[in-house]
Design goal:
The chain is of the alpha+beta class. The chain has one domain: 3-Layer(aba) Sandwich (Aminopeptidase), CATH 3.40.630.30. Strands 1-2-3-4-5-6-7 form a 7-stranded mixed sheet, with helices on both faces. Helix 2 packs antiparallel against helix 3 and helix 4 runs antiparallel to helix 6. The radius of gyration is 20 Å and the shape is globular. The mean pLDDT is about 95.
Length: about 240
């Protein structure tokens, strides 16, 4: 957009370095809690490590998630894959405000991940949770880890969610009896769908025990070095 200056100016052109522009394109980071690695014994006896993703692991996650976009519309995997792909790029390119991303790993293999972002000191936005290995409640465990991070480590007051698939709505929205905000006054950033939420009071009164029971075990933060080393260099399934 061009418009003539209303006054005489000494410089007709003003240039910027990209380092000066980047702060406008990437927001200043909040003082976020550093998620600690934890482990959990799954129902088949295997141990899953849950830790933060590393930047070097993002490219292989992108390649893997791209396959979901190419499988077609069944069970909404195309739109879920596309949105996760964009979120991973937003994380990598610093175009997503205050994101966090957990990976679940068993014996050096990524078996699932969960991500979200912190909007402000009170509100945590849940984005996606996906399991790459079925039958071990990996998705439920990673969702549980995400809520523990939000309410007990980050000390957020609410977690907002929306659901793209019927199974997600049944398991988390209806299963946890999550209330929703009036629509369309409140909309989730994932396409403007209905906002379901859990607050601190509901988390402590009911949701924590419900998800813990679904997971079938407790998160253990006493992680031995051997387990960390075994899952230091990860591969996709």
């Amino acid at each position: 957009m061009y418009k003539e200056s209303p006054v005489e100016v000494s410089q007709k052109e003003i240039t910027f370095k990209v380092e000066e522009l980047e702060p406008f394109l990437s927001s200043p980071q909040l003082d976020m809690a550093t998620p600690q690695p934890c482990k959990i014994e799954l129902k088949d006896g295997s141990t899953m490590l849950i830790r933060e993703v590393k930047d070097k692991e993002i490219p292989m996650l992108l390649d893997y998630v791209k396959k979901f976009m190419e499988t077609g519309a069944k069970d909404f995997y195309d739109i879920v894959g596309a949105r996760i792909y964009a979120e991973l790029l937003g994380y990598l390119r610093n175009r997503l405000k205050d994101p966090y991303l957990f990976v679940g790993a068993i014996d050096g293999e990524i078996v699932g991940f969960a991500n979200g972002r912190v909007r402000d000191k009170d509100l945590n936005i849940s984005l996606h949770t996906m399991a790459f290995k079925r039958g071990l409640r990996i998705g439920a465990t990673l969702y549980y880890r995400k809520l523990v991070y939000a309410f007990e480590e980050q000390k957020n007051q609410e977690v907002w969610s929306t659901f793209e698939s019927y199974n997600g709505l049944k398991r988390w929205g209806i299963g946890m009896a999550q209330p929703s905000y009036p629509y369309p006054e409140y909309q989730h950033e994932l396409g403007g769908a209905r906002v379901f939420y859990v607050d601190q009071q509901y988390w402590n009164a009911a949701v924590k025990d419900y998800v813990k029971e679904m997971v079938g075990n407790e998160l253990d933060y006493d992680v031995e070095d051997e387990l960390l080393e075994k899952n230091e260099e990860l591969v996709m399934p």
